[in-house]
Amino acid sequence: MKKNKERRNLLSIEILGLLLGLIWISPFYLMIVNAFKTKRDIFSGVLGFPSEPVFENFVEAFIDLEFLKSLFNSLLITGFSIAIIILFSSMAGYALARNKSKLSGVIFFIFVAAMLIPFQSVMIPLVSIFGQADMLNAGGLIFMYLGFGCSLSIFLYHGAMTGVSKSLDEAAIIDGANRFQTFWYIIFPLLKPISVTVAILNVIWIWNDYLLPSLVLNESNATIPLKMFYFFGQYTKQWHLALAGLTIAILPVIIGYFFAQKQIINGVSEGAVK
Amino acid sequence: MQNRSLSFWLFLTPVILGLGIVVVIPFFYGLFYSFTDWNGITATAFIGFENYINLFQESEFVDSIWFTVKFALITVILLNVMGLGLALLVTRNIKSSSLLRTVFFMPNLIGGLILGFIWQFIFISVFGDIAGITGIEGFDGWLSTTNTGFWGLVILTAWQMAGYIMIIYIAYLENIPKELIEAAKIDGASSFQRFKNITFPLVAPAFTVSMFLTLSMAFKIYDQNLSLTNGGPFNSTQMVAMEIVRTAFSDNDMAYAQAKAVIFFLIVAVIALTQVYYNKKREVEM
């Protein structure tokens, strides 16, 4: 009897959950379905299926978004930023964890405290300084991402170092390795799980960032969000094209999520709870 | 590694340069120039607190602070209720558990700018259609008034971030020893009693973490604001972050915008430090 009641309870929870899930993804459904419609089709109703699916919207949006170019810019900027954040933050986390002096503690504290400063509080002088140095370009942007991203990353690496025994360093040094070799061949591979977390947290943020690139890059090397903003401004009142553009812009993220959902959810969970 | 060893400093040089040039120097540089008539390149005069006195008399800035505070409070409550609700749902022994986690978390991976555009379509066209079909006037004219703009931003943010808060609650829920729940079941505790006396107290720390996390997230929102309402109608749904960006890069009033940015920093820092204080206090009690 009791078992039966419990099973029925679970079933109703399951149904409730699935309904909620459907509501949750309905914005994406509405976006995709209407991206396949003509302008007139959208005007006569947005809830149903298209009377006859059209693909021209996607072709036009793809061309106007200069999608391959903006995708390339996004990949380039995100890729390089992540690479240097991981390399330099892990080195710093290692050095700070292996030096137990007061000075090392103070440096670590400064990096953590810098997380208190919101982006908008430094953006005006930042743009001014980089402008005067003629560094408002992709290279400058990647360097800025190192500056904004390193604090949390160092914090996570520093925490992970407590699980890496000091005797490993000593053994490597006795075998004649220098500090960098010790770090690169012995320590860094052991930090791989936290490197995955650091990479995921930074990719989500940098890939989607709009405000900073909008202040640094010009339209010719725009990333996807930046290009999407210009594109959307051109097509107000032309939802069929705007929605096709949005669908294309989201696609790389959905593909990435499909292949790495477990790592992404675990990474975010680890980054948030620590 | 010792303080005097070269390798210690070599390992730290890149990030010290990064943080220094990108965050620390601009921060103090901006703090200094907020007391001048700086135009972004040069300053001609030191004007003391004039910018700070002016900004508190500017109704647009003060309004944007109140709008942001109101938005943050409602979003924080909503996000935590939804986040905990979703977490309780997907940690039950149901078949679609991992599928649902994937679905609820998905909006979080997509940028606020793009999501704001999608919801602009929903609030304007889809809601308009629903109003036409059902005849309910409440669905008409969304984003064209301050009130609907406000709730539009709340709905967008709640939908985008509830999955993230869910993940935090899941981490705490899954740490609750199964034996405790089993033992309570055997002793005849109802599911509400189990929630009230076991789950809730053990998940309470997650509540502090998420509350402050969502509070500072809500305060710093910019992309969603830009793409959903663009501050309209008549700048009435403009939040602090957007106000600062506009003062700086549309009005070109750099020193004045920087003074606003300093006030913004103080607000966000007070929120974060309160969290640190509470966390420390809790750790001592435990």
TrEMBL record, chain A:
Membrane topology: Multi-pass membrane protein
UniProt-annotated location(s): Cell membrane
Superkingdom as given in the UniProt entry: Bacteria
Domain spans labelled ABC transmembrane type-1: 71-260
Main localisation: membrane
Transmembrane segments: 12-32, 75-97, 106-130, 142-161, 182-207, 239-260
Keyword Transferase applies: no
Keywords tagged on the record: Cell membrane, Membrane, Transmembrane, Transmembrane helix, Transport
The keyword Cell membrane is assigned to this record: yes
Family classification: Belongs to the binding-protein-dependent transport system permease family.
PANTHER family in UniProt: ABC TRANSPORTER PERMEASE PROTEIN MG189-RELATED-RELATED, LACTOSE TRANSPORT SYSTEM PERMEASE PROTEIN LACG
Record-given protein name: Carbohydrate ABC transporter permease
Native organism: Halobacillus kuroshimensis
UniProtKB/TrEMBL annotation, chain B:
UniProt xrefs under SUPFAM superfamilies: MetI-like
ABC transmembrane type-1 domain sequence ranges: 65-275
Protein family membership: Belongs to the binding-protein-dependent transport system permease family.
Pfam families, alphabetized: BPD_transp_1
Localization in the cell: Cell membrane
Keywords from the named record: Cell membrane, Membrane, Transmembrane, Transmembrane helix, Transport
TM stretches of this protein: 7-29, 65-91, 103-128, 148-172, 200-222, 261-278
Keyword presence, Membrane: yes
Lineage start: Bacteria, Bacillati, Bacillota, Bacilli, Bacillales
Species for this entry: Halobacillus kuroshimensis
InterPro entries (alphabetical): ABC_transporter_permease, MetI-like, MetI-like_sf
Membrane topology: Multi-pass membrane protein
Protein name: Sugar ABC transporter permease
